[in-house]
Design a protein that fits this description.
- The protein is extended.
- It has six domains: 115 residues, no CATH class; 101 residues, Beta-Lactamase; 104 residues, 2-Layer Sandwich (Beta-Lactamase), CATH 3.30.450.20; 120 residues, Beta-Lactamase; 91 residues; 146 residues, 2-Layer Sandwich (Heat Shock Protein 90).
- A hairpin with a 4-residue loop joins strand 12 and strand 13.
- Helix 22 packs antiparallel against helix 23.
- It is α+β, with helices and mostly antiparallel strands.
């Protein structure tokens, strides 16, 4: 090997007469070129790894090999200055030539495909397509809103179920069907609600494997009250972008009644001779029992279900009517007797009454009694045939509706406005308590259109015109009119109404309020009177003041125009603010992506710099025997031992600083996108925890830290801990040399808004630096502490994400106080 490297040739340095300046220039230039050539392939390989979708990525590999080979030839140029390894230099040049020729030939063959890369015009067309996609996304958002409305108000039960069987989304009808609240269903396993005998996963497995697109089946579900209900299920699968199962869309229809009716019909058709048994089964399932009342004997014969309704299951023989009457609620007896007398006396009247039955355990069961009277030829009642139907569930549902209506009434009564509801035709169905207290009308008199006497006659025609227009068009209603108080006085009100529509878009009800605007109207009247008085006085002025009056009129016009321009500018600013919000989100995403993409080539650059440093050390060791024989040994050793290592140390230091800046950008980006977990925090405990974690720094600085009163707050514990650590850490880093450090952490609640501060007697903040204090990469006392100038920008981002604000007060050389607030919740 030594014979190959050390030949009879002399080193290249002899050609340059070993002039240090010339040799140093060649060494530095070739080293820089080689470093750049080694860096470029790493960037190309990183680009290929990050962008596998790019066509012809193999040409980047070829270019990378070509550039790397060129870098090796420049390294050999440095070596041959002292070592006559010209054969190796020629070998690497041959390799470079082969790679370059292959790359050139490949590029020549690839040129027709490269020419087909989209032009700028095509890129603009793609941009227009992206804008169209954005509009489509907006339409999709609107469609999503409509879907949510349809989903929530659908007449059938709808749900989204995860691949693990947990409920992800449920609508009101499904909750009503199963008897659960939405919060009880969400997160629970859907399979737990299916009847054990109906647990069959065959169709579900076929759906997951893509063998079927959807399926419909019937299963029994377990109601919250432990009863089974039949449900017709239509199940389809939604897959993610990768084609993997994401969640199931399940439509559930309660077919319990259909099932019962189908069972009855099937049994009736197949077993006509077992009709009595079928009817009994129907009665048992539906809580229905028939009875016969012999009027003359006053004896009742009943189906077993009737005995069960009265709390005595098991078949019994005929019983006196008084036995049944004793089980009926005392509050209903008078109405039952009166109804029976009327039914017996009126041939055309059917028995139809609802009453309560007291069970042996003192509970109440509601029963509906339906029947007909059998009479003799003279019309005298002989028997009464009828049915007793258990309607307890219906009554419970009615009670729930009534309770819901009571809650709504209580809510409207708590509102300061006059609240009203009407039907779709505009007939008033409800006024809240404030209406009756204000107008003095009796309840019931104002319903339908009976509210009109309370409206001032001069305002009635205009009000009715607008109200009828709203009823005819379905648009929102708004009008100003006077309403008479119970003392006969009138006050101005602003009436507003909005329609409530069903899933088909049909108006089913109107909701509205009347808000007292008497003070506003009085102010307008005073302003109008004042204006009229001013006009009268101006009219009485002399002609000399007419010019001033014209100028005043012109000024008013300019003010109105300026006001209109201001309103237009406010609208534009609102739109600009919204656009800036979107751009800010895009910038944060861009920073996050760019920071990650820059890290990989940065790591490669650090690695190659280290490798080059090791190569220089190895080269220095190999050249040591040769250097001892050279005249310019000191200069060459200076280049190898000082210039090149110094340049490499500068590169390593720069890349390290670049890495720290990337980390800071990543942290700032993460705080812009991170979803915080808000909870009530003991801020005093959080401050103490932060101080404990910084105890070593506090002790080493000799600063005294005091903690005052600190209110609790809502927020993310980790993020707010970072805010406190940064502000306290800055106070420690920027203490005034030669002065004992004093740091105070305190806070107070101002109108339910927590306010905190960190105060120190350190170096303070220059007045000129305050506007840039919370910007990125801003440092004001670099001689006191190192850093990248990102800490306060991160703190500001965290505080603003918590709905608060942050600001600083202080004087240079005296100290600084950082204040920040958080939202109430």
């Amino acid at each position: 090997m030594q014979n190959i490297i050390l030949t009879a040739f002399m080193p290249h340095g002899y050609c340059m007469q070993w002039q240090p300046g010339l040799i140093g220039t060649h060494v530095v230039a070739d080293a820089a070129i080689a470093l750049a050539y080694f860096s470029i392939p790493s960037l190309l390989f990183t680009f290929i790894k990050k962008r596998p979708d790019v066509k012809f990525n193999w040409i980047f590999v070829a270019f990378g090999l070509f550039i790397m080979a060129c870098g090796i030839t420049h390294v050999m140029e440095i070596v041959t200055l002292w070592v006559p390894a010209y054969r190796w230099s020629a070998f690497f040049k041959v390799i470079t030539a082969l790679v370059s020729v292959v790359t050139a030939v490949a590029l020549f063959r690839l040129m027709p495909s490269i020419v087909q890369i989209p032009t700028p015009e095509q890129h603009r067309s793609l941009k227009e397509t992206e804008l169209a996609l954005l509009q489509t996304q907006n339409e999709l958002k609107k469609a999503l809103g409509r879907f949510q409305g349809i989903f929530e108000n659908a007449a059938i039960g709808l749900s989204h179920i995860g691949s693990d069987g947990t409920y992800l989304l449920v609508n009101r009808e499904l909750c009503r069907m199963l008897g659960y609240e939405p919060a009880e269903l969400l997160g629970s396993n859907a399979h737990d609600l299916i009847h054990p005998d109906d647990q069959d996963s065959l169709l579900l497995d076929q759906l997951k494997k893509g063998q079927i697109k959807s399926y419909t089946c019937e299963k029994r579900y377990i109601h919250k009250r432990s009863m089974s209900i039949w449900v017709e299920l239509t199940v389809s699968l939604v897959r993610d972008i990768g084609g993997q199962p994401d969640y199931f869309v399940v439509a559930a229809k309660d077919i319990s009644q259909q099932k019962r009716a189908a069972a009855v019909l099937e049994q009736t058709l197949d077993q006509l001779r077992q009709r009595e048994r079928q009817v009994a089964l129907l009665f048992e399932e539906g809580g229905v029992g028939d009875f016969t009342w012999n009027v003359a004997r006053d004896v009742v014969s009943a189906h077993p279900m009737v005995w069960e309704l009265y709390g005595h299951p098991g078949e019994r023989g005929p019983q006196p009517a008084a036995w049944f009457e004793a089980k009926q609620h005392p509050g209903d007896l008078q109405a039952i007797r009166a109804h029976l007398e009327k039914v017996l006396e009126t041939p055309s009247l059917k028995m139809d009454i609802e009453f309560r039955i007291i069970q042996p355990d003192s509970s109440i069961r509601w029963v509906a009694c339906r029947g007909s009277v059998v009479r003799d030829q003279d019309g005298k009642p002989l028997e009464v045939y009828g049915l007793n139907i258990d309607i307890s569930h219906t009554k419970e549902a009615q009670e729930e509706v009534r309770a819901s209506e009571q809650r709504l009434v209580a809510l409207t009564d708590a509102m300061p406005q006059l609240v009203w509801f009407t039907d779709a035709a505009g007939n008033v169905e409800f006024f809240n308590r404030q209406w009756y207290e204000y107008t003095g009308q009796e309840k019931g008199s104002e319903l339908n259109w009976g509210w009109q006497p309370a409206v001032h006659p001069a305002d009635m025609e205009k009000l009715l015109t607008r109200w009828r227009h709203a009823l005819a068009t379905g648009c929102d209603h708004e009008a100003e009119f006077r309403i008479r108080a119970k003392d006969g006085s009138y006050r101005w009100f602003l009436g507003r109404g909005r329609p409530l529509r069903d899933s088909a878009g049909k108006i089913i009800r109107w909701f509205g309020t009347c808000t007292d605007i008497e003070e506003r109207k009085a102010s307008e009247t005073r302003l109008l009177s004042f204006g009229q008085e001013m006009e009268r006085r101006v009219a009485e002025r002399t002609h000399d003041l007419q010019v001033a009056n014209d100028e005043l009129t012109s000024a008013r016009v300019r003010v109105i125009e300026a006001h209109n321009q201001l309103e237009l500018r406010v609208t534009e600013l609102a739109e600009t603010n919204e656009e800036l919000g979107r751009k800010n989100q895009e910038v944060e995403s861009f920073v996050y992506i760019v920071s990650h993409d820059l890290r990989s080539p940065l790591v490669n650059l650090q690695g190659f710099s280290k490798e080059l440093e090791l190569s220089c050390d190895e080269l220095r060791e190999n050249l040591a025997p040769v250097l001892s024989k050279m005249a310019d040994k000191a200069r060459i050793e200076s280049i190898l031992c000082q210039d090149i290592p110094g340049s490499l140390r500068y590169i390593v230091a720069s890349t390290s600083k670049f890495e720290r800046l990337i980390d800071a950008l990543l942290e700032l980006s993460r705080h812009g996108r991170h979803v915080y977990r808000s909870e009530e925090l003991n801020m005093r405990a959080l401050v103490q925890t932060t101080l404990d974690s910084m105890r070593s720094s506090i002790d080493s600085s000799g600063a005294q830290v005091t903690v005052g009163e600190i209110p609790n707050a809502y927020g993310d514990a980790t993020a707010l801990g970072q805010v406190l650590a940064n502000l306290i850490g800055n106070a420690l880093k920027y203490l005034q040399p030669g002065r004992p450090g004093q740091i105070e952490v305190g806070g107070q609640a101002e109108d339910s808004v927590p306010h905190f501060w960190v105060r120190d007697n350190g170096a303070g903040i220059p007045e000129s630096a305050k506007p840039r204090l919370f910007q990125v990469f801003q440092r004001f006392h670099p001689s006191l502490a190192a850093g990248e100038g990102m800490g306060l920008a991160v703190v500001k981002k965290i505080v603003e994400r918590h709905g608060g604000t942050i600001w600083a007060e202080g004087e240079e050389g005296v100290g600084t106080t950082f204040h920040f607030t958080l939202s109430g919740k």
